[in-house]
């Protein structure tokens, strides 16, 4: 879990470093800081280093508000990453993903 959070924060840091737009840099840095602080508080509370104050781990939440706000922030970062320098060229260069539709799955026939 810690490795996934570290990977997510690294992706935010990469977006901050590679972006040309100042607004994108500020928003990505803010979301990155938010995720790092929220994770550090939760991990500190779980290990007993900090008092328990009820801050959930990002993306691992039992409540609806924390997960919705985190997903909205990550969606914003994904939108920013699509407009990162070189991202459009990389997206057009990649091969087309395989079709993931129900047409490739075997169909079960119902008997009357």
Secondary-structure element order, N to C: HHHH
Assembly annotation: single chain
**Spatial gap, N to C terminus:** 49 Å
Give the overall pLDDT as a whole number: 82
Number of DSSP helical runs: 4
CA gyration radius, whole angstroms: 19 Å
What is the β-strand count? Answer: 0
Strand content range: under 5%
Structural class, by secondary structure, is mainly alpha
Which word captures the global form? elongated
Outline the biggest β-sheet: none
Estimate percent helicity: 55-70%
What does this structure look like?
- With 112 residues, the chain is mostly helical.
- The chain has 4 helices and no strands.
- It has one domain (2-84).
- Helices cover 62% and strands 0% of the residues.
- Helix 2 runs antiparallel to helix 3.
- The longest helix is centred in the N-terminal third of the chain and has 26 residues, at 22-47.
- The mean pLDDT is 82.
Give a quick precis of the structure.
By secondary structure, the protein is mostly helical. The chain has helices at residues 2-18, 22-47, 64-82, 87-93.
